[in-house]
Amino acid sequence: MTSDRTHRPHRVVVLALDGLLPFELGIPQRIFGRARDERGRRLYEVVTCSVRPPGPVQTDADFAILVENGPEALAGADTVVVPASYELGPVYEEGTLTEELAAALARIRPGTRLVAICTGGYVLAAAGHLDGRPATTHWASAAHFQRLFPKVRVDADVLFVDDGDVLTSAGVAAGIDLCVHIVRRDHGTAVANDVARRTVVPPYRDGGQAQYIERPVPDPQQSSTTNARAWALGRLQEPIQLRDMAEQEAMSVRTFTRKFREEVGVSPGQWLTRQRVERARHLLESTGLSVDQVAREAGFGTAQSMRQHLQAVLGVTPTAYRRTFRAELSTACGQ
Description:
Blueprint: E1 10-15, H1 22-32, E2 44-49, E3 55-58, E4 64-67, E5 79-82, H2 90-93, H3 99-105, E6 113-117, H4 121-126, E7 134-135, H5 142-148, E8 153-154, E9 160-162, E10 166-169, H6 173-187, H7 189-199, H8 226-233, H9 242-248, H10 253-264, H11 268-286, H12 291-298, H13 303-314, H14 318-333
Parallel strand pairs: 1-2, 1-5, 5-6, 6-10, 7-8
Antiparallel strand pairs: 3-4, 9-10
Helix pairs in contact: 1-6, 6-7, 8-9, 9-10, 11-12, 11-13, 11-14
């Protein structure tokens, strides 16, 4: 563990463009700014900059914001975040960068992690950072995005895409999901869950979960599946049948399954597996339990079953995940 003198937070620079959405501009500060280590130290430093010298940047609302950093801030970034903007001009219309924006992006060091929220992906695509790579954006812009940038492998049906050093998300809430995902990737489940708790947002929504397209907002008077999900989360280590969850809401299995998918975006079985994978990740990160013990505590029953599910979701075995995560955490703490 590092001393206070050698501790250096990961520097996140948020690029504020004219026409930006104030809500999305605030997501990185809200999520990354809440992340702390076990000693209460900030894990990220969040800085906002403009493509111009310090000054006002117009939003899509009836007010401007005063940005105190110019494009030179991008040169010191470990991660650059580009939120959505409704005034991208030739970036949106022709897929080309303005001279001003190109000059600003040229300041970013090679190897810097790049993150786009919603239509911020147009900027990364116009700069060539998404060529040949998977990416997503808001479902309403996906077809236009694909026509404008045919080299990008656009997936309009997911909340976010993590392609290593380049990450993209759908709109608004999916930007929150992506930032919480990055905190989890950088510092583990416990830190990410603490950030989510403090921000009062779900600690995890799978990036592969479908975007909510043309689905009506549920009537609060109608029954939901909230109680069943809470009930299942309290007993993940036990066998849970679909009918058991349906009984918590006094619904038939068929009705419960339909309502669950409408509310959550995936089937009850997929959701339950995802929660067990998250539980296993947390135990592998934070305890010395054996793989067999973790499998039982997470509800997989056997190490072989857990190994198959972690391999499918994370692409690694439980042992490899524990070893890799602890090595990455040790490296991060040594910054």
